[in-house]
TrEMBL record:
An example Gene Ontology molecular-function term: NADH pyrophosphatase activity
This protein's record includes keyword Kinase: no
Record region (Disordered): 1-35
SUPFAM superfamilies the UniProt entry points to: Nudix
Compositional bias segments (type: Low complexity): 16-35
Record-given protein name: NAD(+) diphosphatase
Gene3D superfamilies named among the record's database cross-references: 3.90.79.20, Nucleoside Triphosphate Pyrophosphohydrolase
Domain Nudix hydrolase: 246-376
Highest classification ranks of the organism: Eukaryota, Viridiplantae, Streptophyta, Embryophyta, Tracheophyta
Natural source organism: Cucumis melo
Pfam families: NUDIX
Length: 440
């Protein structure tokens, strides 16, 4: 986005996701509006990226045909070609390969750009693809993702990493396997459909990766088997039978604020895109509260002592390491009691105090829409069989074409919302010690 007419981006979030069809682009009810008093662009997000999953908003009762147990029974019957079992439910399958969901693209109407979609496959077509495979399709291979009874559909994920031959089959249909992180950047955050599909992809990746790393019982070492349509696992050892549930790894992420000097503490790591600064973050340790984790991590990484800690919002984060696929980012504002920085170089490359004006400029200069279009174009090229190499950092520059001195993560990350909320003084939590974001 050029900074000539619409300068900084700041985001107003609402707590509920629309219940209409998540796969219909015309169902988006997000709005874009510009303010005449402040040169900003306000994009109404109904939830953080990866939250607001439209096929997981409600859990059907066990007797409901759309529930996990009932749907699995119907799925197994169809896989066995049981003619005595009829079902009017549509089964949609989303294949994954090494953590990457199947995706495709389509041109935007009245626009030269493209947008991505998940590569859902009807169960009948999916069975046909496996006709010559040595892998026997059973219900245990599928993971229940959710349902939409108004669409009469149940959605499943499956890992097909061992089936190399499927790649060429999908390529002939302009389908390809794409990293969830790439889809995240490529998503139009003002499009309810895109954000809904991203949430589904994130949920599916987290579950499938968890299945991959939980093949054995941590109690006796026995092999685990999926139960309840993949929603949990159980030890197959008859003397053990321990239940294993998907693990959630909570992470605190905090914007540390110096009230007196009107500045915020930002850090960067060596793995970051060049010139990108973000909030401090760290895993919660056993036996400590969220607030204690905020204070400990801030002290360990920067030597800054924190006093008051105020909750902002939380975000599922399924794009971390494959051995920790179920991270939950819990966001806070933290108010500094000391101000001399002592960076732990084992954790961070650098940490500095930044003025409100500097951070506002970082939001202004970062062309998030350009990065989104670049990533969307990359998905299109991948599905066409052309892999394009491009540095994401080249998308963040000023109007003259010069590199921006710094920028912060895009609107798909909770760090962006913590930072932009502080820059624009949004929320009572910044002024009265209470947060208005708890219902985001």
């Amino acid at each position: 986005m050029k900074s000539t007419s619409l300068s900084p981006l700041h985001f107003n979030s609402h707590k509920s996701f629309p219940s209409d069809n998540p796969f219909n682009p015309s169902s988006s009810s997000s709005s874009i509006s510009s303010s005449t008093s402040i040169p900003t662009m306000s994009i109404n997000l109904r939830s953080h990226a990866f939250a607001g999953n439209p096929i997981k908003l409600k859990t059907p009762k066990p007797e409901n045909p759309f529930s996990a147990s009932s749907a699995l029974e119907s799925l197994n019957s169809q896989l066995l070609n049981n003619t005595h079992f009829s079902s009017s439910i549509n089964f949609k399958v989303l294949p994954f390969k090494k953590g990457r969901p199947l995706a495709t693209f389509s041109a935007r109407p009245n626009d030269s750009s493209s947008t991505w979609h998940l590569g859902w496959i009807d169960l009948t077509d999916f069975k046909a693809l496996f006709a010559n495979s040595t892998l026997e399709l059973t219900g245990d291979l599928f993971v229940y993702l959710g349902s939409l009874d108004e669409e009469n559909s149940v959605y499943w994920g499956i890992d097909v990493s061992s089936e190399e031959g499927l790649v060429s089959e999908f390529a002939s249909k302009l389908l390809c396997f794409v990293e969830v992180r790439t889809l995240m950047v490529a998503s139009d955050w003002a499009d309810a459909r895109a954000m809904g599909e991203l949430a589904i992809a994130g949920h599916a990746r987290a579950l499938l990766e968890w299945h991959h790393v939980s093949k054995f019982c941590g109690h006796c070492g026995g092999k685990t088997v999926p139960v309840e349509a993949g929603k949990r696992k159980q030890c197959s050892n008859p003397l053990c039978k321990k239940k294993v549930y998907p693990r959630v790894d909570p992470v605190v992420i905090m914007l540390v604020i110096d009230r007196e000097n009107d500045r915020a503490l930002l850090s960067k790591q060596s793995r970051f895109v060049p010139r990108m600064w973000s909030c401090l973050a760290g895993f919660i340790e056993p036996g400590e509260s969220l607030e204690e984790a905020v204070k400990r991590e801030t002290w360990e990484e920067t030597g800054i002592e924190v006093g008051e800690v105020v909750y902002h919002s939380s975000q599922p984060w399924p794009v971390g390491p494959s051995n920790m696929p179920c991270q939950l980012m819990v966001g806070f504002f933290a108010y500094a009691k000391s101000f001399d920085i002592n960076v732990d170089k084992g954790e961070l490359e650098d940490a500095q105090w930044h003025s409100r004006e500097d951070v506002r400029n970082a939001l202004t200069f970062a062309e998030y829409e350009k990065a989104q279009r670049t990533a969307a174009a990359k998905v299109e090229q991948m599905c066409k069989g052309v892999e394009r190499q491009q540095s994401l950092s080249s998308d963040f520059n000023v109007e003259s074409g010069e590199l921006a001195p710094m920028f912060v993560p895009g609107p798909f990350a909770i760090a962006h919302h913590l930072i932009s909320s502080w820059v624009y003084n949004e929320g009572s939590g910044l002024n009265k010690g209470r947060s208005s974001f708890s219902n985001l």
